[in-house]
Design brief:
Elements (H helix, E strand, L loop, with lengths): L5 H16 L4 E8 L14 E5 L2 E3 L1 E6 L5 E8 L8 H15 L6 E7 L3 E8 L2 H10 L5 H4 L9 H11 L6 E8 L10 H10 L3 E6 L5 H14 L4 E2 L6 H12 L3 E5 L9 E9 L4 E3 L3 E4 L2
Parallel strand pairs: 5-6, 5-8, 8-9, 9-10
Antiparallel strand pairs: 1-11, 1-13, 2-3, 2-12, 4-11, 6-7, 12-14
Helix pairs in contact: 2-3, 2-8, 5-6, 6-7
Length: 293
């Protein structure tokens, strides 16, 4: 039997804890554009700088044109304001998913929201199930509209609900939100919806299809910007297929950066994060991440 002093025993316990706890890696997905707006796809690790709460971090993990699995949530606003464009949205979403999803690595779920939030399809890689569910996504029936309710369009609640699905999957995670940007009746608010996406490392890509509400544009632009996604608006010169195509191009043009924070986490909370690229290139990445001990 080996006898250890109290000090040596404490060191042995600390060593054991180090091996069993594991290293917490902060992962960030980023896309980079040049001054002409085109994606830049040939950067190396040394071309990037990552700051956490203003402090430079050592980038330990790096890859470009990532093959990481993609978990995608398609969130469709099915309120009556979207009735005339619903068929176009379904068709464009079908074509996008058919082109982007890789059957052996990627998964998708479909969530619709209006007076309530409903899963049209849970998380799956089954293309036939996705196709069938998408064909049934539609605005409420007259009977549903006549039900007594104080709620309207639950945009923020839908994003929070989608976040619960994205807690467990690893790899890349994103939400595409088809909406006119108006929320009526959600229990959550805009900051709460953004926080819900950031807690699960999900990029949000809102697509504004109908409506000319400046406030809605600001809401959706903030959703995209703060989560590291992007806001797109269907308008003259950009149809719904074009909007989906831009998202697909971005998903194929991302860099994956990973680091271990130089400040060990003692209390959970958000930490500011900034990704920079050399030469004044424009980087699109999330602004915060949720740190846990």
């Amino acid at each position: 039997m080996i006898h250890l002093s109290r000090r040596d025993f404490g060191r042995a316990l600390a060593a054991q804890a180090t091996f069993t706890t594991g290293v917490k890696v902060v992962s960030v997905l980023a896309s980079v554009r040049g001054r002409d707006g085109a994606f830049v796809r040939d950067l190396s690790r040394d071309d990037f700088t990552v700051l956490e709460n203003g402090r430079p971090q050592v980038i330990s993990y790096f890859s470009r044109e990532t093959d990481l699995p993609l978990t995608l949530g398609l969130l469709v606003d099915t309120s009556m304001s979207q009735e005339r464009v619903m068929a176009q949205q379904r068709g464009a979403a079908f074509r996008f998913l058919n082109q982007v999803l890789r059957p052996r690595s990627d998964q998708v779920f479909i969530l619709q929201f209006d007076m309530g939030v409903f899963f049209a399809q849970g998380l799956t890689a089954d293309w036939r199930a996705i196709e069938n569910a998408l064909s049934l996504v539609d605005t409420p029936t007259r009977a549903e509209l006549n039900r007594p309710t104080s709620r309207g369009t639950l945009l923020y609640d839908a994003i929070v609900r989608a976040g619960t699905v994205l807690r467990e999957p690893t790899g890349r995670k994103a939400m595409i939100v088809l909406t006119d940007g108006v929320d009526v009746g959600s229990d959550s608010d805009l900051p709460g919806a953004i926080d819900a996406a950031l807690r699960v490392d999900a990029l949000v890509y809102p697509i504004l299809f109908t409506g000319f509400n400046g406030g809605a544009r600001n809401v959706l632009a903030r959703l995209g910007r703060e989560t590291g996604g992007a806001f797109l608006e269907v308008r003259k010169g950009l149809d719904i297929d074009g909007a989906f195509s831009k998202i697909g191009e971005e998903l194929r043009s991302q860099y994956s950066l990973g680091y271990v924070s130089d400040d060990p986490v003692r209390m959970e909370g958000f930490r500011r994060i900034e990704v920079r690229a050399r030469g004044g290139l424009v980087v699109q990445a999330r602004s915060r991440y949720w740190a846990v001990p």
